[in-house]
Amino acid sequence: MDRRNFLLKSAGLLISSYFGLNSFSKAFAIEKHRNYPFNQPCIALIIDDIGHSLSHARQFLKLGVPITFSILPRLVYSYDLAVEIHDKGHEIMLHQPMEPYNADSFDPGPGALYVGDGSDRIGRVIEENIAGVPCAVGANNHMGSRFTECRKEIREALKVVKKKGLFFVDSRTSSHSMGYKTARKLHMAATGRNIFLDNFHDESFIYYQLHKLKKHAKRYGHAVGIGHPFPKTARAIGRFYKDLKDSDISLVYVSEVL
User: Fold this and answer.
1) Which DSSP helix (H) or strand (E) runs through 226?
2) To 10 degrees, the CA torsion angle through 227, 195, 67, 237?
3) Which residues of the chain register pLDDT less than 70?
4) How many C-beta atoms lie closer than 10 Å to residue 214's C-beta?
5) CB of 197 within 8 A of CB of 60?
6) β-strands 91-98, 68-71 pairing
7) Can you state the angle between helices 231-244 and 54-61, rounded to 10 degrees?
8) What three-state secondary structure class fits 41?
């Protein structure tokens, strides 16, 4: 755009931000759109909680579409699935467990980080988790509604993630998460989740959420959706991918929208 239009659009964005009119996803999408490298909208799909089951992960591999697999550490199939998924050409992240609210009822699992952990423990745990998920190029939080709200702890965790050369995706399990903002302050490659696909285990609902993701991508240039290794999620993605074949929207790995 010419200089005059650029200045007018910039002023409008500043005014909107001042009055609190932009949500996280809108503000982030606008920030990204200024240097967006694609000529068409794109969607990045992440499947979390990989590591419990071989068959549950493989149902997504059979789809033959770009999917980023986020693998929980220290589970029976974590290492083997990381190798298998990487060998098939897909992108892998560490699904780093972090303390949620009501941790007594919702166990984040092995290799978790907790509020009050010192930098030494945080560093040791994350490095061990990364070693157990070979070929990981990024990380996102598993649970973590409490941990990601704590500025000190999330900063220490992300410093280690950065040191290991990984990018960060804020799963945004809390509307008050400091994850994305902290990553940007640390000059890390980062993005945030726009839509959870399968909070309800219903194929029609998941399919509807995927189309909401499509609308977001058309409006802002890209969108990030997170799902889980459920058969209904795999089937809905398969249906959705067929819909995209004649559209101007592409599926990409999440590293491509950082």
Assistant:
1) strand 222-227
2) 70
3) 1-38
4) 19
5) no
6) parallel
7) 10
8) coil
- Note the residue count of the chain: 258
Query: What are 149's two structure tokens?
Result: 């709200």
The DSSP bridge partners found for residue 139 are 94, 168
What residue has token string 């996803």? 25
Give the model's pLDDT for residue 38.
53
Tokens of 55: 């068959």
Burial 216-251 (b: 16+ CB within 10 A, else e): bbbebbbbbbbbbbbebbbebbeebbeeeeeeebeb
Chain centroid offset of residue 125 CA: 20
φ, ψ for residue 213, nearest 5 deg: -60, -40
Torsion of CA 214, 220, 226, 227, to 10 degrees: 0
Burial class (CB in 10 A: 0-12, 13-18, 19+), 206: buried
Query: Which amino acid is present at 174?
Result: S
pTM of the prediction?
A: 0.86
Report how far residue 72's alpha carbon sits from residue 81's, in angstroms, rounded to the nearest whole number.
10
Going from N- to C-terminal start, the domains of the chain cover: 44-257
pLDDT given at position 25? 44
The architecture in CATH of the region 44-257 reads Alpha-Beta Barrel (3.20)
pLDDT at 26: 42
Here the tokens at position 28 are 């982030």
CB neighbours of residue 186 within 10 Å: 14
